[in-house]
From TrEMBL:
It comes from the Bacteria. GO terms for molecular function: protein-N(PI)-phosphohistidine-sugar phosphotransferase activity. The keyword S-adenosyl-L-methionine does not apply. GO terms for biological process: phosphoenolpyruvate-dependent sugar phosphotransferase system. This is PTS EIIB type-3 domain-containing protein. Keywords: Phosphoprotein, Phosphotransferase system, Sugar transport, Transferase, Transport. Residues 1-87 form the PTS EIIB type-3 domain. It comes from Lacticaseibacillus thailandensis DSM 22698 = JCM 13996.
Length: 87
């Protein structure tokens, strides 16, 4: 999913960066991140991830199943932009 997002962001000339990380690395990479996207099958982790992300002022969202299941990079870019621009 991250690779599809990177490819779509590059094609769209977007400055978004997508990086895949395991949940065990969460605290090590949140600093400097604007948005943490969680795969839909990991939504049970949302509460814990949100608590950790709140310490860094990072927004958290679950990737829509339709986008994730289709590895829709363009959809991921659109979703990430919508989440980042949400007030």
């Amino acid at each position: 999913m991250a690779a599809a997002g990177r490819k779509a962001a590059k094609k769209a000339k977007s400055d978004l960066e997508f990086k895949a990380r395991s949940d065990s690395e969460l605290g090590d990479f949140l600093q400097g991140v604007d948005l943490l996207l969680i795969a839909p099958h990991l939504k049970y982790m949302l509460h814990d991830a949100q608590k950790e992300a709140d310490q860094y002022g990072v927004k958290v969202a679950i990737i829509p199943q339709k986008v994730y299941g289709a590895l829709d990079g363009a959809g991921l870019v659109t979703f990430a932009n919508e989440e980042l621009n949400r007030g």
